[in-house]
Each structure stands twice: as C-alpha cells, then as structure tokens.
Specification:
By secondary structure, the protein is of the alpha+beta class. 41% of the residues lie in helices and 20% in strands. It is built from seven helices and nine strands. The protein has an eight-stranded antiparallel beta barrel. Strand 3 (210-219) and strand 4 form a beta hairpin. Helix 1 packs across helix 3, helix 1 packs across helix 6 (131-142) and helix 3 (61-89) crosses helix 6. The longest helix is centred in the N-terminal third of the chain and has 29 residues, at 61-89. The radius of gyration is 28 Å and the shape is elongated. The protein starts with 23 loop residues before the first helix and ends with a strand. The model is unreliable at 1-17 and 242-248 (pLDDT under 50).
Length: 299
C-alpha cells in the first residue's frame, strides 16, 4: 500500500511553528534608529537657531538606546503579542490589522482618560510605532522564521535605510538643496512689538530707534544668566556675506542698548518673511550645561 505524499508547509518545517511575535522588538528598535538618522540627515532643512547639533545628544545615545530596547520589549508584551494571539485565534493573519486598531483604540482611551491627553494624537502615538512590529511578527509567523533569521532581515533593511540617510545628508550638504535660508528683512519690518516665553519676554522697537524691553535676557559680569527691563535704543545690522575681520554671520541682527541692563545679546533673525522671529542663544559652547535659544515672535 502506497501512502500519499504529504507536503510540509512553511509553518511545519523545522518541527514547530515560530513564536507569535518573533522579530517584533527588532522592528520596533529599528524604526526608531532610522527615525533618529532621518532627523539628523535633514537637519540642514531646518533652522537650528544657531545651536547646531549639541554634542550632548551623542553622549546620551547609550541611554536612549537602552530606553528604546526596554520600550521595544514592553511594546511586544502589551501590543504585538495580543494582536497576534487574537489574529491566530480567528485563523487568519489578515485579522492583525483590525485587532491592532482595536487594541490601540483601547489603550488610547485609557491613556487619554487617565492623563487628560488628546485622544486622536494618543491613538496615533500608540498605533503608529506598532505598525512595523506587527507586520514583522506576521511575516515571521507566516514563514516560520526564527529570531536569527529576523535579525538578518531587519538588520539588512535597517542598514540600507541608514546608508540612504547618510547619502542624502552628504548630498544635501554638498548641494545645499532645500537648505534653510533666514529671511532678509528691511529695517522698518523690525519695528513693532515682539513677544516670547508665553508673554514673559516683551520687546517694543520704535521707528526712531527707541526700544522698550521687559524680561529680556542679559549677561551679567559674574557670568550668571539674568533678565532685565527698561528703555533704551536699538540698531539694525544687515547680514554680511563677505566674511573678513568684521564678519557677523549670515543673519541680520538687532542690537539692544537698554539703560541699566549692562551687556545684552544681539538678536538674530529667524523664521520666515511671513512669520519672522528674533532669537539669541543662551549658554556657552564650552560649558557643560546645554545651550538653548530664546525666541521672540512678531505680535
């Protein structure tokens, strides 16, 4: 008697089915690594307000990676595993999508009610990072792939994405394509009221060079950052592109001289011609404390 030949499917090869969420944590970590690379690669398209990339960001990379690893395994337990278990219970991997949406909606409802968060954005923040992990888990489960095989596949895709980011950043830096360009305003376009810090900082620039400051940052002789209010004058200095001894950089500047405030900072233009900003950088590049920009907006 000849028995019929039995063909093994992908799920039975190797004697067992693959775990439900194989590789989901790898996909979760990879998407955040690539997102960070995209952010760095596109830095030339944004206005950095004279700060550049703080070296403290690179020092914090090990801590950030550890946080991403912990978040990946937490996401695997709370999101991907329930989605895959419910999809398997219904006998079709295509049920993973509606189950993922349902679980994201449930978590978002709990988070928004407990912490008073906007429901729509909470759903996006929960479901968005969960798309690729669920897709990776579904792919691995359908093809009975083990963790090693998923490491190779996710690593290859991540490596290609990082190379694309590096190449894009190099080309953008060399060509200046879509690079941010600060607006070039005329002097009379600075006249008016400027406000920042949620209303804590106010500056009024008059047509005849008069200035009224309230809560503006300054540099004291002892080196401590402080604020000052008073009246005085302001001058406008357009950008200088030619360099040389008196090169001041590629931005227009507003210099304040407020009585009783000592030495104040130059304010540089940022934003766009339609929505201009003035900013100054707080902090010393050689100091251990992080620098940040104080920004004023036109009223």
């Amino acid at each position: 008697m000849v028995l019929p030949e039995v063909h093994e499917g992908p799920a039975e090869r190797g004697g067992r089915r693959s775990p439900l969420a194989t590789g989901s944590e790898l996909a979760f970590m990879a998407q955040f690594i690539v997102a960070g690379a995209v952010f760095l690669a596109t830095s030339g398209l944004r206005d950095d307000h004279g700060l550049g990339i703080d070296s403290g960001v690179f020092a914090a990379i090990p801590v950030l990676l550890l946080a991403v690893v912990l978040a990946a395994y937490l996401h695997r337990v709370l999101f991907t595993l329930p989605v895959m278990a419910l999809a398997r219970a219904l006998g079709s991997r295509w049920w993973a999508v509606p189950w993922a949406a349902a679980i994201a909606a449930a978590y978002a409802g709990w988070a928004s009610s407990g912490w008073d968060l906007p429901y729509g954005w909470t759903v996006l923040w929960i479901a968005g990072p969960g798309v690729l992990p669920v897709v990776a888990a579904s792919y691995a489960h359908h093809r009975s792939l083990g963790w090693t095989a998923m490491v190779a596949r996710v690593g290859a895709v991540t490596g290609i994405a990082l190379l694309v980011c590096a190449l894009g950043a190099f080309l953008q830096g060399r060509t200046g394509f879509a690079a941010y360009e600060p607006p070039g305003l005329e002097r009379d376009q600075y006249v008016g009221d400027w406000i920042g810090g949620g209303g804590a900082r106010k500056l009024k620039l008059g047509e005849n060079g008069e200035a009224v400051a309230d809560g503006m940052p300054l540099v004291e002789r002892n080196g401590l950052w402080d604020s000052c209010s008073g009246t005085g004058t302001w001058t406008f200095e357009p950008r200088r592109e030619s360099g040389g001894l008196f090169h001041r950089g590629p931005r227009d500047r507003v210099t304040l001289s407020i009585e009783g405030c000592g030495r104040m900072r130059d304010w540089q233009v940022a934003g766009t011609a339609e929505r201009p900003e003035l900013f100054c950088v707080i902090g010393d590049p050689e100091d251990l404390h992080p620098r940040y920009a104080v920004t004023l907006h036109r009223v």
